Structures
1.
Amino acid sequence: MIHLRVVSPPDITDGLVPVLRRKPAVMNLTVLRSTVSNPDEDAVQSDVPQGVADEVVARLRHLGVEQRGSIVLQNIAASVSGLRDAATADPSLRTIVAAGPPITTPGGHCHYLGGEGNQQVRATSARGGPRES
């Protein structure tokens, strides 16, 4: 889950809020008019699943938020919400973030991601990595 914190001028907020309301995955939408100082602008906050965050940020940028305001993204480590569970039930919103394919035995867990190894890989992993001779 990603928490979005946006500072925007009122004229951008007027166009921004309807866009966010139309997206079912945008949750906990909070609009605080004229609450930001230096610069004097609006605060808009929401939570979005990770799989939707890029799309929402692209829309914010299209509206000019980053040029006249700011966009802050914060990764949420834990969240308890039935609403969140419903919004992330869409399988297309689930992602795996990895530096490469996970290493697994042939036919093992996540084998379809291309990281199949042999028994030597398994033994090396069990030892905690390769050893110098």
2.
Amino acid sequence: MTKWQNLQASNRRRIYRIARELHLPANVHHFLGTLMEHTRPHARRALKALAEQKQAQTKSAFLPVIQAWDRVYYCPDEQPAPPIPLPPLTLGTVFMSLSRLFRHLYGISLRRADVAQGEVWDSDVYKLEVVHEDEGLIGWIYADLFTRPGKASGAGHYTVRCSRRTDLDDDGSDFNMDAREETHIRRSQAFEAAKRHRLQGQDGIYQLPLVVLMCEFGNARHKQRPIILEWHEVLTLYHEMGHAMHCKLIVQSMNMMSLNLPQIVQR
């Protein structure tokens, strides 16, 4: 084992041990109590600063009470800034950094893939393969990153298809096919079969997860230069990719969303 592999194994054991201990009520209460004691002085200083701002504006003789809505009024949100000066961050650079991060943490890389005709709903949607260094392909991500007319606003992660064991399916009982429907159902089954694989260390056959990652970065059309992301957009992309990796690292038997930490640690 290399030094880095030893560190990975140590981190995985530590994560697994912490996960087993976190569910104990005494540990949860201890953590919340410690966190509250640590943050209380900072919260009091922040409330006093808000009260002084409110006092100055209202010309009150005493420090006024801070209401829940005062924070938004007296402390409008500011765009976050990177902790150190950085060069312009292109979309390609950010995805490369994500791929390197996931490779070091989980042995996973992101690889751009070709799309078939009609596979994506807009020409600006990218398809990414999620590839594990030992297991090979473990899922796909459709990255719908750019704003366009008619597209929903905001950022989000959507699980189109989660991991699920499929070799125990009872297709014969699931479908009561007649002659008119049989062709369509067979075609659908053939399409789904291409998305199913055997996973290393797992019994049975599993469908691979597929997710959509949606953001609203600047319009990519009619731009000759690379897309430069603002720092808050970089943070958003990292956040949503965290959800995507959660979906990719889970191995589960049932068709539902759940956190199966032992399988995450195993990978």
